[in-house]
Amino acid sequence: MKKMDALSGLARASLPVAIALAVTQPLSASAQVLEEVLVTAERRVESLQDTPISITALTSDGIEKRGITNAEDMFGSIPGMGGATVPGSRGALGMSIRGVSAGGANNISLDPAVGMYVDGVYVGKMLGTAMDVAQIERIEILRGPQGTLYGRNSTAGALNVISRKPLGEFAADVTVGIGNYRARTLKTNIDFDSIGEIGEGAGRLDAAVSFMFKDRDGLYDNYSGGGDFDSLNRRAWRGALRWHLSDSFVVDYAYDYSKLDENGSLQKVVGFTPLTTQGTNRVDFLRNTVLPAAQGFNLNPVADPRIAARWIPSINETIAAYERAEARGEGRPDGGWADDTPTSENESNGHAITAEWNLGELGLLGDVTLKSITAYRDIETYVFGDIDDIDSSLDANGIGAYNDNLHATLLQYYANSGGASFPGVDVLWDAVDLNGAGHTKQDTLSNYEQVSQELQWLGATQQLDYVLGLYWFVVVK
Fold this sequence. Notes:
The protein is α+β, with helices and mostly antiparallel strands and about 475 residues long.
């Protein structure tokens, strides 16, 4: 602490001198010039300052300084942008711009409100992207509706990710990281020497490959067993080719593959919403309505024996579990419970071919460039487990903390029969024995395939810059 005080004093003493130097020293020529940032927000390469839309552009230097490796890393550093990973579904990322979003990203029946593009290819669902492994050259965030150039799924805005193309010469970049909870990361990018020469024979071919590995133990204890919460286990690789047939004709091909197999984050109950629109408290409903009614049904000589043996003890178990959840409050615990540990398995791969042909000056049409973007992407995800920390496991007698909706259903059934057993309630009890009575449970397999083709005609004259295009997009399944 004494050393820190001494350093602080030195800094304070040096400050006036630094200010005096700043005032009297003339600015150098280099200090007066802002670095030009080029963007492709309007489908053509132009200066950021000449782009008439609300846009934030991050260059490779800014991306590295912010530690951005995927879309989720941007939320804390980009004004007006937010989002989060969907609880219980790792790899499913929900994004919003200016507060506009489009439901759960893990629901593939919903279209996003933020259009995400990787090297010009529209990523139809946020279940998995190629950002983790790509060598990112630039990220562009376009705020506000972008339907004119980016289609109907860009109500909130658009996110452009531009990867670095192969260098054409040998280069290797290896990043290794270690941390607590046995965290290990590895990212490797290798560029190879080019083959051939531009404009000679078959032209020049450049190539690059990337590999990414992330692994970490869980951050929170799982008191129910089955592995700790919030673990990391990700693998991805990417290959890129660039073919220069001539100075005016270039073809880029990229393939990416990623796999994720992780336990989900610990989700904690911090309170209970009212049971009805009148504001009925769930715990009060169980204690003051359901429990007395069940005890009254049990007095019936023909009462279903399961009322006394299973239902009444389970009502008390549920009340106790809800009270424990409320008593824990909103603080982050060291661990929690899960009847079924939440797990996510994602596997995605994609191909993209971009061909660009500069035709040069074509009279009244101006300087013309033709561009074709052909892409295919396949994503398969499987999520399983519950996302609450209420222990709803059943003992050997079928007693446990049932969810309150089940209690309400049993109340309605037995109210109609006066507590007697009947076929309908038998079916309900059989369902509890088969599936349990937990509060949440996911068991969903999703498969998504997309194919897209885009054709662009980019023209520029002295008076006008214009873009013409055709776009075809189909979801295979």
